[in-house]
Amino acid sequence: MKKRFFISAAIILIISVIAFFSISYKSLDNDKSKNQTTKDQVTKNKTQETKNTSSNTSAPTTAVESLNTKLKLTDSGLHNSVDDINSLSNYLNGGFVRYSNPFLFISPSVTLSYDSPLVYSMEDGTTFFKQLSSVSNASSINIINNNVYYKSSSISTLMKTNISTHENTILANQCGPYYIYNDWIYFISPSDCSIKKMTLNGDSLTTIKSDLSKDKNWYPEDPSTLFIYNNKIYYSDMVTYGDEHNLKWKNEIYSMNLDGTDLEKVLEDRFFLFSLYENSIYYLKTLDDTSINRDLVKFDLSTKKSSTLSSFSSSAAEGFNIYNNDLYFIGMYPQSSSTPTGFDMKLEKYNLNTKKTSTISNSITTFGKMFILNDRIFILPVGVTDKNSYLYYSVKTDGSEQKYVK
């Protein structure tokens, strides 16, 4: 099979989600207030333009001038895509939100259908915004030494953009999922189904594992993933099989050493989303192609055994994140046609220790990608809602300080 089978599988999944969630996306309000432009001194006689992004939050407690317009970031040591604040769950969800002291970077490209520059704000992500116009449609964001590493959602290219000079560098023209570990970039090359690595400058390109899949039903792009955990490379794929009249699919997760040796299949099942937390893989198992019912499954990497923790009659395909022993998700419950989507949506969490589910917020208007940093949850809707036209919804993990940011 060729790439068209992967596309067919993706279309089936998308149609299934649309059919049950009945979410329609509309254009942004044409009467949206214009962004106010300011000019700041950058270097000697050069200036750059920055724009405010409005929100319905109260005015920031700090002065606008406190946000350094000549953005400089300081860091030290070896760099990794996952650290004490930027979690693996956030990265596997697309890496649209990234913290780099003292700023929070957010890419609205998951929400907006047109070119959307990367924005940054103070740490809470709800106060003051500025745009980095040189970085657009970014996902899988990493911030290192005043450079933004990212994939553009419009092309399969790995980019590096200098925040100060706005210089853009193409590190890899053919790049699937990538991950930074100890100052090395590991990535899947779709052109030859291999895993490669290179330096942060794109030098010393080395093939770690070639010919990952002799089964050409697999096309190593999204929804594939790649990450490193306990000095092992993990990557996932989706494989389609059967014929056009009975097309089926399954997910697989593999692991190998950093040098490409000891390749083994870790897990095989049907799931939309997964994350690795404290040496176990957690995922929402898809029971069939037409049902929104999900089983929460835990796979222990030490014992190689699976156990079903809970069953959910409804849960959004995009809402899934593990943070401090809690698994957060968006529950969707069928309601009358009086609701905009036909569903009553709740932000909920499942405690991995007590195995109890509780509600964080009843204010969710649509499902989306979820990110959690510094005890604050960010939900970037997949498409702009006609009710609020907001870029994302934010709430503390205890349910306080709910905000819609426009």
UniProtKB/TrEMBL annotation:
Residues 31-62 are annotated as: Disordered. SUPFAM superfamilies: YWTD domain (SSF63825). The chain crosses the membrane at residues 5-25. InterPro entries: LRP1-like_beta_prop (IPR032485). The lineage of its organism: Bacteria, Bacillati, Bacillota, Clostridia, Eubacteriales. Residues 50-62 have a biased composition (Low complexity). The keyword Transmembrane applies. This is DUF5050 domain-containing protein. Residues 86-378 form the Prolow-density lipoprotein receptor-related protein 1-like beta-propeller domain.
